[in-house]
Amino acid sequence: MFEAEIKYSTAGPVVPPGEYLGSAEYADVYFDRPDGSFYAAGRELRLRRTGGRTLLTGKLPPFDQASQSKEEWETSVDDGAVMAEILQNLGFVRRVAFTKQCRLFRDVSQGLALTITVVNVDFSPETFVEIEHPAADREAGLAALPVIRDYAARLGLATECPTCYTELCRSARTGTTPKGASPP
After folding, report:
1. 83: phi then psi, degrees, rounded to nearest 5
2. In DSSP terms, which residues pair with 10 in a beta bridge?
3. Which end of the chain is more exposed for a tag (fewer CB within 10 A), N or C?
């Protein structure tokens, strides 16, 4: 699946229109090669615990650099601890771990089904809003991005945040500026 997604940062509360789907907590652990080459190549490997389930997600380098939208695959894992051991025995190491508190919404804009997630992370006081559309291919993913930007503008969201959560987390915990971001 090609996940056309744009993340926005905002200081204030956001209540998107559309159907409220509930809340969820995501405990995410990202893995990398010891030399950082997996992440440096734009790839991501994540184990996520949520609602008594564990999910393994792999993401390829971005198909759109501006939004950092990526092709991804996700599957359920019976035993998260064993999966973490498998990854470590295959040569992966923990890159970073953090928790996301999410409120999920669903809406339609210009005929596209959108998922809107209002996110608070354990490493920052900022609120993030992810607006995404699952596309069948790269072209459909790219075509969805202007629809997402239009929808965000109608919500009053203007500050895109293409820096991934792993980099934001590492930077917050080390007191450095995230790669690709402008210093404050």
Report:
1. -60, -40
2. 127
3. C
